[in-house]
Amino acid sequence: MPETPFASVILGNEPGSFPHGVLAERHPAIIRQVRDALPYGPGQRRALDELLRNCAEGTVEPLPADAPDRAAWQAWGLAEYAGRSWFDVPWLWSESYFYRRLLEAVGYFAPGPWRGIDPFRPVKRAELDAPETDRELAALDGLRDLPEPERDRALLHGSLWGNRADLGFRLSAEGAEDREPAPALVADDSERLWSLLPPDGTAGLVLVADNAGRELVPDLLLLAHLLAGDRIARAVLHVKPHPYYVSDAIMADVLDGLERLRTAPGAAGEHGRLLRRAMADGRLTVRAHPFSCAPLPYERMPDDLRAEFAAATLTVFKGDLNYRRLVGDRRRPPTASFAAATAYFPGPVAALRTLKSEVVTGLTAATEARLVAAGQRWRTDGTHALVQVN
Ligand SMILES: O=P(O)(O)OC[C@@]1(O)O[C@H](CO)[C@@H](O)[C@@H]1O
Question: In terms of CB atoms within 10 Å, which end of the chain has fewer, N or C?
């Protein structure tokens, strides 16, 4: 299936641009953070130092011959991009491959004791254990007596704004968490979103998750709320098959999040226990598809994933990176149609995302003009959000 033909693919080779800053500054900062996070041995430290040098000045190197996912990466573009500068290949590709190389450096895929050890786990755990998470969970008790539409809205917005909790983003956006979110969404199709869940409660919802911790917890609460009220019959939660973009959720993070909920007092604990039952009886399943960490737009998804999304009543994509992959990581005007950009998608689809990179579609000209009048930071500073549906 061809990618949307208009608008050029974003590269990271323009000094001063946001993508360039991610490759030149955020990635080295992530390596330094990982180096300090766990007691890695000399071999791992050497490999991390080598990656630090390579990602700033060097070229994309192939994966080792025995890497389990070598064939997949060759097909995803490595065959074409090996030997080129990290800055001259599609930005989305370069970022994804950076995380793959980071896992290589710490021995995540190699036989031995470090296999499967998440280098980002310490930062993810610290966030999940933070007192802010307790406060957010306690706030759920205040929703009990609200009318249903208000509770719907609160839980949807909890999941939406939970996307600000993104540990990679915070590394290069100091104080982002403390900045007030903008009062209005730049696009709001929430009514359409709710209308896609039929009142007979038969819907199957797919939620393509983004970050662990303080984003995944409100995602889980939203699913629990929908299952508890028989608004959906079943849910599938897609997480990443391995650590990615610092705080993206993997299965271990789902288990941590569920445990955090199950052991919380009040309504949060009830939601957690409901989710445990839903997992036991198959109403809630978790998937970790290899394509979830692919360096490609969803337009190029494999057939099995396409069939799964086609069968869902609604698929919800969370977060900035999933948005870039959903609409294509291309330079489009913000008024380009979201419906056209997602026309390839095999079923009803929604995006819940705070804006942390420049890709955006579906804005009205008036909204764009209002935002641009105050500068361009709205596109990347995480203070604005959208709910879009096709
Ligand atoms: O997908 P998320 O967690 O909402 O955001 C991911 C992000 O922090 O990383 C990318 C840049 O590295 C951008 O897409 C965005 O800034």
Answer: N
* pTM attached to this predicted model: 0.94
Task: Please identify, by atom number, the ligand 1 atom nearest to the C-alpha of residue 353.
Answer: 4
What is the structure's pLDDT at 342? 98
Cβ of 239: how many Cβ atoms within 10 Å? 23
Which residues partner with 350 through β-bridges? 316, 389
Residues 78/84, Cβ–Cβ less than 8 Å: no
| Closest approach atom of ligand 1 to CA 247 | 3
To 10 degrees, the CA torsion angle through 177, 182, 324, 205? 90
Whole-number pLDDT of residue 169: 56
State in Å: Cα 245 to ligand 1 middle.
7
Task: Specify the CATH number of the domain 127-389.
Answer: 3.40.50.10880
- Which ipTM score applies to this complex? 0.97
Of the CA atoms within 13 Å of residue 171, those in its CB half-sphere come to: 21
**For residue 282, what is the enclosing H or E element?**
none
Domain layout of the chain by residue ranges = 18-105, 127-389
